[in-house]
Every structure is written in C-alpha cells, then in structure tokens.
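Limitations
The structure tokens in this dataset are predictions for the assembled complex, not deposited experimental models. Users should treat interface geometry with appropriate caution, especially where small molecules or nucleic acid strands are included. An illustrative entry is reproduced here so readers can see what is and is not provided.
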Amino acid sequence: MKTILGKFRYFAVPAFLILFLPCAADEGMWTFDNPPLKPLREKYGFDAGQEWLDHVRLASVRFMDGGSGSFVSPNGLVLTNHHVAVGQLQKMSTAEKDFVSVGFYAAKPEDESPCPDLEVNVLVSMEDVTARVRSAVSDKMNAEQALRAREAEIAAIENECQEKTGLKPEVVRLYHGGEYWLYRYKKYTDIRLVMAPERMAAYYGGDSDNFTFPRYDLDMAFFRVYENGQPVRPEAWLKWNAAGAGEEDLVFVSGHPGSTDRLYTLAQLEYQRDLQYPMILKYIGRRIDILHEYMKAGPEQHRRGLIQLFGLENSKKALSGEYLGLLDPSLFVKKKTEEDALRKTVASKPEWKKAYSGAWKNIEKAVARQRERARHNFYRRVIGSRLYSTANQIAFYTAETVKPESERLDGYHASQLEELKFHLFSPAPVYKDLEEANLAGCLKLSLEELGPDDPFLKLVLNGRTPEAAAADLIRGTGLESVEMRKRLIEGGRAAVDTCRDPLVVLARKLEPTVREGIQWRKKNVESVMSAGTEQIAQAVFAAYGKDQYPDATFTLRLSYGAVRGYPMNGTLAPCKTTLYGLYDRALSFDRKGDFEPPARFWDRLDSLNLATPVNFVSTCDIIGGNSGSPVLNRSGELVGLVFDGNIESLVGRFVYDDAKNRTVAVHSAYIIEALRKLYDASGLADEIEGK
Amino acid sequence: MKTILGKFRYFAVPAFLILFLPCAADEGMWTFDNPPLKPLREKYGFDAGQEWLDHVRLASVRFMDGGSGSFVSPNGLVLTNHHVAVGQLQKMSTAEKDFVSVGFYAAKPEDESPCPDLEVNVLVSMEDVTARVRSAVSDKMNAEQALRAREAEIAAIENECQEKTGLKPEVVRLYHGGEYWLYRYKKYTDIRLVMAPERMAAYYGGDSDNFTFPRYDLDMAFFRVYENGQPVRPEAWLKWNAAGAGEEDLVFVSGHPGSTDRLYTLAQLEYQRDLQYPMILKYIGRRIDILHEYMKAGPEQHRRGLIQLFGLENSKKALSGEYLGLLDPSLFVKKKTEEDALRKTVASKPEWKKAYSGAWKNIEKAVARQRERARHNFYRRVIGSRLYSTANQIAFYTAETVKPESERLDGYHASQLEELKFHLFSPAPVYKDLEEANLAGCLKLSLEELGPDDPFLKLVLNGRTPEAAAADLIRGTGLESVEMRKRLIEGGRAAVDTCRDPLVVLARKLEPTVREGIQWRKKNVESVMSAGTEQIAQAVFAAYGKDQYPDATFTLRLSYGAVRGYPMNGTLAPCKTTLYGLYDRALSFDRKGDFEPPARFWDRLDSLNLATPVNFVSTCDIIGGNSGSPVLNRSGELVGLVFDGNIESLVGRFVYDDAKNRTVAVHSAYIIEALRKLYDASGLADEIEGK
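Predicted assembly:
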C-alpha cells in the first residue's frame, strides 16, 4: 500500500482517525462502494443507480501530482484546473516563452504539447480485501509485528494484481483500518496539454481571493490523454451542460479529496494544535520569505519561483484557516462531546469494552511519544531541494530493491517501481539557483531551531555556514542530468557507494539516521496508532453501522449538495457571480496587482455577455485534492468545475458545517463563453459541447 | 439643556462617560472648537485654517429627525440620505401615490413638495458656558440638588439666548460634564423635497446589505430650504467634485453623530451587556414580528408598515453588532486596561486622588440601583403608539408650563416649546390600524414579562386583554385630529383633566407613575452618575490634557481619515465599488427580492458608464446620526455622501479600530451619473455642478 496524500493545496498532515459523525446535512466524501443512497433519496428524491455511479466513476480522473479531473469528450479530452496544470505549464516554459503567463492553445492535434512527467489514473474496479489483510495478522504478534505483517500482505496483493491485470494496484486503508480495499487503476502517462488560459484569468484575485467567494476565476485547463500515440477513447465521459445548475439544484462532486482529519481523537487534535500546525506554519512562512528574496533578482527568477510561491501561499492560507479552527474552543467542545458519547457506548457492552475501550489510551500514549521527537523529526531533515530528494530516493532504491518484497519499505515494492522511476527520470527543468536558495534557507532555519551542536546539523554542515553548504552541495551535484540518475539506478548500490557527487554522498551519510527515524516512528507511533484507530473503527461499525464515510485518502469520492449562497460578513453571499462582477472587482482596485485581468478581457469586453455566470457555490463537502473535479447534475452532466473552497470551509478538515462550508466552482457557461469569445477556441468548445 | 440623541439608525442607549483614549489612528469625532489640528498636520500635512473650518461648519446641516446633510448650492439645496428623507417621503405618500417606492423629482421650483414636519438646523456659533453652569452649583448641595441647579441654570442660559438672538439655543454637555457649551442654531422649518430616487435604488440590497460593504446604494435625497417663501441663500455651501477622492486620499466627514459610549466604566458596560442590550433586542424582535404580521394584510398595510420595519431592522442589525462587541471578552480586557491606567494615574497624586478617585465606586453604586429597576423601567411603559406619546406630552405640557422655569422638566422650558409644538401639531398621517397592532403587541410583551398582577398593567389593561385594551384606546381616541391636540394645549390643564378621550385619560392616570420614575432615576442614578462622570472627565483633562474628543452628542463633529479598503472575510474589500458590481449583485441573486434595482436600471443600462464608482469607504470615525453627512476633500469640496458604516464598525460605539472600521459613502460621480442618465434630472445636476 502506498499512502498517497493529496499534496495539492496543502501540506499533508497525516490522517489517522475514522469518522463516526452522524451524517446530517450534505456532509461526506463517500466511496463509490458505499454511496449516500439514503440521504439522496430522502432529502433530494434522487436514486443513484449503479449505471449512473459507474458512469461518473469511469469519467473521473486522478492527477497523481495531486488533483482531479474528468473526461469531457469521446476523444480523451480531460478538464481540470489551471492550478492543477500549472506545474506542467511551468515545466514546458522557458525564459523566452512562459505559458504560465501567456496561456496556451493548440487548435490542431499536432500542436498539443506533451507533459514532461504527468500521470493520470482512472479507477477501473474495487475489491474488498479486508479479510485477506486481517488474516496476515495473528493474535500473538505485537503492534509492530502486526504492522509489518499487514504491510507485507498488502505488498503481495498489489504485486499479484499488477502481474495479473496490468492495472495499477493500490490497497487503500479506509476508515483508518476499518476496511482495506484493492483499487485497480488504468494509468496514463502520455498526456498532452490542449488549452490553458493566462494565469491572471485563472487565478484572478491572486492569493487575496484564494479560498474566498464571491469569486471570478477561469481556473481551467484542458489535457488530452493519449495511448499508443492516439487520443484515448475513454470508457465514459461527461456530457456538457452549459446552462449550469440553478439555486437549490442538487449537484454532485466526483473527485479525489486528499485528506481529512474529521475524527482525530482529542489527543491527536491537541498534538496538531500545539505542535504540528505552529511548526508547519513557521516553516512555510520561512519558505515564502526565501522565495520573495530569490524572486527579487530579476524577471527570470520571478518566473522560476512563482509557482512554488503560489503553492506555499496557498498552503499558508489553508493551514492558517485550519489552525484557526483548532484554536476555536468550540471545536474541542464538539469533538469531546462526540468522543465521550462513543466511549460511553463502547463501555456499555462488556464485549465492546474488552475489544475497543483501550484504543484511546493507547493513542494517547503514542501521541506522547510523538511529542517527544516532534521538533527533531521536523527539523532534522534536508528540505527544500528536489535534487536532494532525488539523491535520497536513489540511495534507498538501490538498497531496498535488492531485499525480498516483505522486507522492503513502502514505496519500493515491485508494483510501485514504475511510477517511482517515471518521476525520478523526469526531464522537467531543474533551477539550481532556486534549489540553492531554498536549501540554504531551510538549513538556516534548522540551525536556528536545533543549534550548531545538533549531530544532524554537524553532519550536514560539516563546519560550513548553511549558505556555503548549500552552494557546495547544489553547485557540485550533477543530478540535474537524467542520464546520471539512470546510471546510478542501473549501477545499483555499488554505483551509489562509489559515487562522489556531493548530494549522493550526503544522502548515503544520512541514510542510517533516516532509517532509524522511520523505524522509531513505526515502532512507537504508527503501529500503536493504527491499531488504536482500527479498534475505534470497529467500535463505530459495531455501534453505528456503516452509514458513515471514511476520512479522505486521495481516492475517488462522491459528494453531494445544493447550489446555495450563505451568510457572509453581515450579509449574504449569492450562489453565483457574473462577468459584471469581474469588471467591478478590477475597477474597484483600479486594475492593480492581482485584480487586473489579461488584456483580452478589455479588448473583447464589448463582445461578451456580461450576465454570464462565472463561479458558483454548493454545499458539497470537499477538500484539497478535489481541485479539478467535475460538478454534475442529476443527469450526470457537467455543470461546473471545482477549484476551491470558501474561507469558511477550511475548518472542514476537522468538521463540516453546511451553514457556511461551500465548494467553489467555475460555471460551465463561463468556460464556453471564454473559449468562444475570449480565446478563439471554438474548436475546443465545439468538441466539449458535442457540436 | 435638551438631551437630543440621534435616534436614527439605532435606539439610543444613554451615553454617560468621557473619552480618554490616546488618539492614534484616524479616530475621533471632534468638536469644531477643538479640531484635530495636530494629527492632521503630522499625519497628513494638512492645515485646517479657521476659514476652512467655518465654511465646512456653516455648510453642514442637522436634520432634527436624526441625520445630517449639507448645502450643495447657493440656492438652499440640501443633500442628505434617502433613508433620512424616507420618513417625510412616507408622510407625503398615500395608497395611490407612494413616493417611497416610485421616487420623486421636481424639475420646476413650483413642484417642490413641502414636508409636513421637518426641521433642519445650522450651527451658527458656539460659546463655552462651563464656568456659568458650574457656578450654579455649590459645595453644600448633594448630587440631586446639584443636578437640579445645573438644569435650572442651563434652562436660563437657553431662554436668554433665544430672547436675545432669536436663534435656537442648545446647551451641550460635552465630555459628560467636563465642559458645557451653548450652541446657537439657525432653524429652518420650511423644507421642500426636490428629488429622491426609488427606495430600491437607495436601499439596494435591503436589510441584508445594510451595514456592510461592498455596497451599491444610491442613498441620496435633495431638499430645498425656504425662508419667507423663497429659497434660502446659505452662508456657505459645498462645491461639488465629481472626480471624487482616490485611494489613500485624505477626506473629512462633517456631521452629527448621535451617541457613542467609548468610555463607559466597566460597571456601566456590564450593565449594558447583561441587561440593556438583551432587553432592547428582545423588544425590537417583537416589534418586527408585530409588523410582519400587520403587513401581511395587504399592499396598503405593507406600505404603511414598511418604513417602521426598516427602522426596526436597522436597529436590530446595529444593536446586534454592538452587542456582539460587548460579548467579546477582548473588549472588556481593553477597557479594563484603560480604566486601571487612569485610576492608577489618579491615585498617584494626592489632590487628584481626593478629587476624583471616588467616581468609579459611586458610578458602580448607581449602576447597582439601575439594575434593581431595569426590567420594570423597561416594561412599565406604554410603547409602540405615537398617539399615546402625544397624549402623554399634552398632559405633561399642560402641567409643566404653568410652573416657574426652574422647576420644569427638561423638554418643557420656554425655549423648547416652539419645537415641541411643531411636532405635536404635525399634520402627518396617522395609521390607526398600525397604532393598534403595535400597542397590542407591546402590551402583550409587557404582560409576558411582568405578569398580570403588576400594578402598571392592572391600571392599563383594567381587566381587558392587550388586544381589547389597544382596540378601546386607539379606536376610541380622537387624537389623530391636529385640531383636538391644539384645543387641549390651548385649554390647559383644565381641558386635559376634563377630557374623556381614552388615551388622554390613560396618560393622566399614568402621570404619577411616570413622574415617580423620572424622580427616582434622577435621584438614584442620573445625579450620581453625572457627578461621577464629570469627576472622571476632570481627571482625564488633568492627566492627559485636552487632546481628546468628547463622546458623540448629536452635535456637529469633524472626522477625518483616508479612503482605504480593508481585510474582509479572508480577502480584501476594495476602497470603492462600480456600477458593474450593482449588476453583478442583481444577477447573482437572479434579480430577486432586495437585489432587483428599479426598472430604469435595466432600461437605461446601455447608456450608463459602468465604470462609474458607486460607493466608497474611508477610515473616518462615524456613528448613527452621521447619515447624510458630506465627505469632503482637502479643498472642502464634496466628494461623497455618508450613508452607513460597515459591519466591522458597529463595535465603534465602544471602541474604534482603524484596521477595519469604515465609513461607507455614495460617490459624488454616481450621483451625477444617476441624475443625468437614470433620472433625467440634468437641471438638478447642473445646479450642484454649478453649470
């Protein structure tokens, strides 16, 4: 099993706990094997038949970078967000031609632009393997042995699947161990960019407007999926509905929420509040400072740093919102009430009490251990450099892949190697000056936090300043060469052990420390917590049945809700915005900064229908990773494109509140209006409208 | 002295305490005798000369209904808010012709429409009379005697002034007794309506958008002031500047803030939080329910109730915001820090300690007394009926005016009678069905709160249900007749005593109770508190000097600040909005309810310049009563028209925070664009633009 956390829109905070909220309101990110049929029927009079569900599932696409999308034509056209595509846009760009800022449109198939290292997946089938995974564990094992046995069994299931079906396997741990499912994916790696607007149209309002509503963003991008050099004919694709959805209409979101922590125990929540969030926010703040400094140097540096900066600012805003939620005492009151209720229920039956009641105490103990090493674990890392990660992965690859399957670390099982190498050998450009600035800054932060006598820092710095160490390491490495990476992987451990590249040497030296950290964590934290959360999951199933949805795991989920405004800042936010509002916001800020749309918006103002809806909100329950998900109507037609949540939704990592939590989407009508009237892309509009 | 609290936009909560905040930021509602010269010079490099100040003062107008305005042409044209004018608009309207909903424009002088009972004032001169008022009080008097002596002296000053100058006198208690000033006003009562747009243009967004920003309201109305049948030639009037003010420009507001409570002692604030606000909010909520029920009956009932409903909803929103501020523990922390600092300073000098340190304890005692009777004082009143107020005033008039000046209640001194009669004899329509509904509902509330055995209720209801009592009283009264009111006043006490009109009989019966209440309050609360606050005021002058502004008293004040957006709901609010935004908001709500502008906005859409700024915000410090104030630039030109504060400004009753507190104004350009292109009122536009 590979734990893939949606990395997009946030820095993943590990999710360990199960959900046992009574699902009132439009709450929930439901798996396709357990869709919310009952509330849909009772609240909305809607019956989601198996055909409807299969169609939606097969038209949904996962972006392995972090993000979601959907097929929107029979010719493999995929719609997602600009901000999901923007990493690829940057990789395609150069100082001379910056597709991020000017946009891209291939009117003819031959102009479609291959992406350096993009992978998308379609969920083909799912199988419950809980019994098989459980059978690997015996009562005689301690928590650590049990964890190892489970991991080995999962690796075996995944390897078997790949050999038999050729599909990409993923054993998913749902309900934090309550269930294990084998998900089989069709994997595509020949993805070509078809169309993306300018970033200033997609990300209109910038960091200020990010995670807020009312909003006016054209946050879209189109890719085409190829197989064997031809556009793929997907099993399912979504019909376009340019009329969109009206107020109070039932809508759905099908996508890949990254992670939620809706039912951390109180002990885990306190850990997040007291340690994890303050540390991460400090780290992100520093990274932003480093980038601002770097980007000052000139326009090319600005271009190179911009997308990283976006990611960091985005994370900062999201995490700050989540952190504010944690600081609100009412959240803890709510959580405590729920936890107390469950524990009381568990205590009410002797067999439940025996089987489950120890879980909370055990998790509390594991959290206590976690606290001990929290700061060390955070700052004793070489962070900020992609090249160092590459060196580290090469070192581990050569060490792990010679071991028998059952002894390998997760990430290095046979079935995972193809994907690992796809990323390891990515030809995407590496900006060494940016790498150096990031590495120096992050080492400096570690030095401030740990002091010069820390053994980790002594090893890394070796008497040098952070700046000098970063310069030596980054300027001295040759790992920007894909050829060199391939040579090392092919040469195996011997090649790594004799390599004199400074980053490879450092990775080798740090390997024992890293391994010790992983083992320590597995033994003292992960094994205990996963046993505890699994017990709680079983307690919940026993007590409340399976009218539950699991915490998000970057796997396909179905959310539902109504198109609806909400109370905001003393007044009402409407359920949608229009093009009039885009111009209002531009002129309200005197067309300054992030509030100046691209020139074509002014040049073609007269040709636009300003009443066109631009963005709209619904009560659907989503989180980072859902970016790019389609919004669907009852007929399974596409009426919108998810690109954000409102500021009130950020606390949604921990609790969902349908009074204010909203999904923000691009309206289907705006996409058509923009393609036809702003971007001269009628060919593309015709394709998605089936004309 | 008459205590005139701005009643507009809120239910007045008595203000007793002085302000001794260090005035950083753009804080303060400054008197024209003590303008903020220092911060203006230091922060904005602006020197407000005496000429500039006199000009602004003489161009400023007070609406005695509650509200502000300014002369904007040499021919007596006055600009104010639609919501300041709306009471008069309703009084002019009938079931057949509703000027509130369709608007009004007199293109020719002869079409200008006289107002039934509107009075406006211009502040002609000011004189410090502190020494004279103080001299009336001797050390041998107790607090109650001192209060009475001061009141008698003030009445004498006011009477003298009126006799000598013919001007309207008002002795104003500033700094809660730190100073007394005689303000002399030129009074006008022949006021004619020139222009008002439809309410849906003025109050676009309705109660939802009230007290919020971004905003798109044309909240304006034009009157012309007449004297001797001719348009008055005002001493000063404001030049129009249709370019308006840009971001960060220095601007001023000259107007009449009603009341603030910026430096209540902690004891007083707790009283407000624990008793006053919950009671008032409950009462207003009930009044709103009564009105909704009444207005359901038909379109004419809807028309009759609408403006009262507006006032109540407006108060509810304002008071709710203030109450939320009081419930925020950080407000009390801030207030406690300030109070502790002042008390420590006072304690540091023996002479200060002796003179002032007892004040807080005395106020605390008075508050304790106030608490005892709070609920009784609130519910033992006949409220909700204008006709009952009239009866009550007639009874008191005939009793008070036969007494010597020094023994009369405030409101019945010789210099106050003209104005009292102006309102008492107003020919404005009275809707008896609405009076009855209100009276019945309010009696019902008192019954719920006090129970059937309460002596007040026994007296009022006399065995009847609230509904039956209200029906008897309102249907049986003839007081809607101005003639009858005149006859009673002219007939004196004998006429009142023999009158068998049920409302007059009730007023007569309740008179002893009302008098007892007034005396009890004077003796136990007012006299002690006013002595205490006066001591604190003197302590502040001693400790901090006079770089202070007094709490608002519905007298002319100058505020200053910059045109500036603010952080809002996770993003930025711009400093202005445009016409594009009005259409966006309309279409965002599918043109429903309060978000549908009048038809002319659609009919003439093509002719409008949608980039026209509509509303804008500044850091100027204002509160209810400032409605209709001009916004001025450095040259004293009119660049805007104050009509609201943002939701973040509501806590401004207690504290000012320049990070978020904003004044919301109509942009001068929108007024011109609307007059010329929407309302075919180019004549009026020419007049104010001096063309």
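Some entries come with short summary sentences. For this one: The radius of gyration of chain B is 25 Å.
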